[in-house]
Design goal:
Layout: H1 3-16, H2 30-40, H3 49-56, E1 60-67, H4 71-76, E2 82-87, H5 93-100, E3 107-111, E4 126-130, H6 151-156, E5 161-170, E6 173-183, E7 188-201, E8 204-212, E9 225-228, E10 237-245, E11 250-259, E12 262-265, E13 276-278, E14 283-291, E15 294-303, E16 306-320, E17 331-342, E18 345-353, H7 359-367, H8 402-407
Parallel strand pairs: 1-2, 2-3, 3-4
Antiparallel strand pairs: 4-5, 5-6, 6-7, 7-8, 9-10, 10-11, 11-12, 13-14, 14-15, 15-16, 16-17, 17-18
Length: about 400
């Protein structure tokens, strides 16, 4: 056997006992490693070639913790359309170039102490930039300069220091929300939020209007923009997320109704919690938690410029006290109350419980997709995160919304 043939034989023999499905990857960033392991539900040592291929096809990815470099992102997510990233310090020019060279990228959300490259995000369908709280009022803050309308125009129309800018491009129209900030070393107060609407006209950006979106802002607000027809007139209205409110985690929106191209806050949509849109029945749906063992679902109609509740279903866990004042309940069961709007007032029309119907009968009565309430059906998917109260996914993350998915081509 020649030496060459001997080497071929040795390689073949080695390959028979080697697992080529295992593909070790040495991460540059611990934060990316953690997110990838959580996404794949396995450790780095358990990665396979198929896992790497799966990551390469991933269309959007979110890294919650701070990172310094994009090396892992470039290697693992070359086809990403949406990235949400937080940088430990300033976003380097090298990283800016890397993001701009990603031809698949359509949406980018970044937080960094400073970004010099003002060209970043100019060609994206969605762009969000914000600074860490401790950096938001320093001289390095140049968020206003990222607006398509220019720094001077934005600063002329706001009072405080810009904290965050979010841009959404839909067709020829450009929607930007700028949030400003007041810092008193104790807590942060959003001073104002302005919605800038402009339009592409060839190579120019033509100013359309500025709307005051200032409203009560809850915790974890991203000020995200959604374009949704919420009054069923065939025109896209503008919703700006206000965040979570109270211990029950209600999410509400500032709403600007589209009146043939002009906009005004209207209809009381901002008071509807955890809203969902039922286009088939032309209803706005709402869900909320009354307390740990009580939840409500409601339907609203839009008439004469206002929303009014037409139906409400409340579930509540009933405790029957034990004998002789015992702390242990004698029995407990779920009770359901249905109300309807009759002659302009909400009135109770039915009360029933697990003592009246079997589990299967209750399932068919209010949960089944073909029932009137259909609590398990997609019509109850909230605008915030497509979550439902029945599985408590309503309280999950809201980083990617349906408007954003449509804009970046990932419906």
């Amino acid at each position: 056997m020649t030496k060459f043939r001997f080497l071929i034989f040795i390689f073949w023999l080695y390959s028979m006992f080697t697992d080529y499905t295992s593909v070790p990857y040495h991460f540059k960033e611990e934060a990316v490693k953690k997110e990838v392991e959580r996404f794949l539900e396995k450790t780095e040592e358990e990665f396979t070639k198929q896992d790497i291929e799966k990551l390469s096809e991933c269309k959007y990815f979110v890294v919650d913790d701070s990172i310094d470099t994009l090396e892992d992102i470039e290697a693992l997510f070359p086809n990403a359309r949406y990235l949400m990233l937080t940088f430990e310090g300033a976003l380097s020019n090298e990283n800016c170039v890397s993001l701009e060279n990603n031809t698949s990228l359509r949406a980018l959300s970044i937080s960094a102490q400073h970004v010099d490259d003002l060209e970043l995000g100019k060609n994206l369908a969605f762009f969000e930039i914000s600074y860490p709280e401790e950096e938001c009022l320093t001289d390095k803050n140049n968020i206003a300069a990222f607006s398509v309308l220019g720094k001077e125009f934005v600063e002329e129309n706001i009072k405080g220091k810009p904290l965050q800018l979010i841009r959404l491009v839909d067709g020829d129209y450009i929607y930007e929300v700028v949030a400003t900030d007041e810092w008193d070393e104790e807590f942060r107060i959003i001073q104002e939020r302005k919605l800038f609407i402009s339009k592409k006209d060839g190579e120019r950006i033509v100013y359309e209007t500025v709307l005051d979106a200032t409203d009560a802002v809850g915790d974890y607000s991203k000020n995200r923009i959604r374009l949704v027809d919420v009054n069923f007139d065939g025109k896209q209205d503008i919703l700006i997320e206000k965040g979570h409110f109270g211990a029950q985690g209600l999410v509400t929106f500032t709403c600007f109704m589209n009146n043939d191209g002009t906009y005004e806050q209207g209809g009381g949509f901002g008071g509807i919690s955890n809203s969902a849109i039922d286009n088939e029945n032309k209803k706005v749906l709402s869900v909320w938690r009354n307390w740990a063992a009580s939840h409500s679902w409601a339907m609203y109609s839009y008439e004469d410029g206002e929303y009014s509740m037409t139906d409400c279903l409340t579930e509540e866990l009933i405790y029957v006290d034990g004998e002789d004042g015992s702390d242990e309940a004698k029995e407990e069961y779920w009770e359901y109350t249905i109300e309807k709007c009759i002659d302009g007032e909400m009135q109770v029309v039915e009360v029933f419980s697990e003592k009246d119907y079997t589990y299967e009968e209750i399932e068919a009565k209010i949960y089944a997709e073909d029932s009137y309430w259909g609590l398990r059906s997609d019509k109850w998917n909230t605008l915030f995160n497509s979550g439902k109260m029945v599985d408590f996914s309503i309280y999950g993350s809201g980083d990617v919304n349906e408007t954003l998915l449509r804009i970046i081509g990932e419906e």
